[in-house]
Here is the input.
Amino acid sequence: MKSTDDLEQVLVLFARTGGRRMALGAFLSTLVVLAGMALLGTSGWFITATALAGLAGAMFNVFVPSAAIRLLALGRTFGRYAERMVTHDATLGVLAALRERLFRGWAGPQAARALLRRPSRLLFRLTGDIDALESIYLRLVVPAIAALGAALLAGVVLANLDWRLGLAIFVWLLAFGWGTAAVVARLARPLALRRARALERLRAQAIDLVAGQTDLAMAGRLPAQCARLARTDDTLSRADDALHRLETGAGWTYAVGGHLTVAATLLAVGALAQHRGLGAPAAALALLIALAALEPFAAMRRGAIEAGRSWLAARRVGPRLKREADDGIVIGTPGDGEALLLCDAGVVHPGREGAALHDVSLRIARGERVAVVGSSGAGKSTLLGLVAGELAPHAGQVRALPATWLTQRTELFQDSLRDNLRLADPQASDEQLWDALRAAGLEVDVRQLSRGLDTPLGEGGLGLSGGQSRRLALARLLLLRADFWLLDEPTEALDAATAADVLARLAQHASGRTVLLATHLRREAALAERLLVMRAGRLVADHRRGTRGFDAALDALRHD
Here is the structure.
């Protein structure tokens, strides 16, 4: 039932996003198939009738049939072009909408943590899995509808000769054509699943090999990892070979079915010619229509081969398309004068026992500077993740202004320094970028670089020191111009001089902003006018500057 629901979610998205274009594409595909069958049948009838008229020396009007043949040929050519344009445009539009939905889903709570744990898996969802879904429409739905039209046309044409022959050919085409596709899909499903999983493992292992080759070499595990990769590739090759053999067998089956269809039709029209005086042109028309009728069904074999892969992709992607049920948790904007309001909020990390935050209630006014202090594992970063919207509460209410979060880890990418800055403001001018670098204390260092803002950074910001990377993150923070800052140990691992400079600049530019700072360092907590003490996921104390509790909590923190 679950897999059926997931497939239903995907099909509903297909219908809502590109329903009309997809219906038009299926209609055009059916018209093209019918035009091809009519063209073949009419041509056979015309050639036979012309030959007989020539032998008998009779008059024969060649203009109407020849005009019809030209019309069908041109219509089939232009129809095929229009059908390909419409079906592929509809499919690409739906897949683009699907990718957008997945991106939005992965921008929700818990998403970044899942992405960090299994980046290759989520990348495969956006590439391999979504590409597999196109087979549902292009290689299954469209050929199936076109094949139904072909069976109807063949049945109607042959029913004009004899209703029993028309009914028999219609039932045979559907039973054999669709039945063969169903059997092939059933046989291909385990092979397609094996291939999809092997391909995903191969990608993940290749990424692990490339990213961790230094560590693997130092640990002496590089040959073992290469051998593991080779075994996975061998599994993938065997699955590909099995699917190829199955597809070849399906092609032979459809070819044999086509020959049987033509042979049976030939015997039937021979009997009709003997007992009812059926003419040779009509017999040629019936034979050629029967010959062309099975071709659209044969086009389904590729979709049947990939049906298992498409089903697996729908099962993986479908849950992300569902709307989460309302469980009473409130996430919204606080009232006037408030930057943050938590009411009995709790957080449970996936895969871990017990709550990371227990019934936390907190109110922070706009413009306040608040530091959350406590030992490692007390829940400080979890609290910031909850406020930032990165973590979803499992209970309580969360109301917060939109915030920008300076995490412990500086996220920089293999790109130019300019583009790393513009992640905060894609429309920022170079002048604004230099202003942000100046405010962060990084302008002099960047101007000394030969390419300035165009300086390329390596993966993870390779090419910058730790202090420079932190200042670049600070420049991005300032460039965003958010009114609510979440700072998670902003000077951790920096030397004393650099940390003092970064903190001074934060204090200078934090004027008028709300700041929520997680720290276990005294130099960082000194920026705050209010200290929140956390222990084992609970808020155990709330001290304001000027009180003994504030001074005692500040003195208890680490000095460097």
Remarks:
- The chain has 19 helices and ten strands.
- Confidence is low (pLDDT under 50) at residues 324-330.
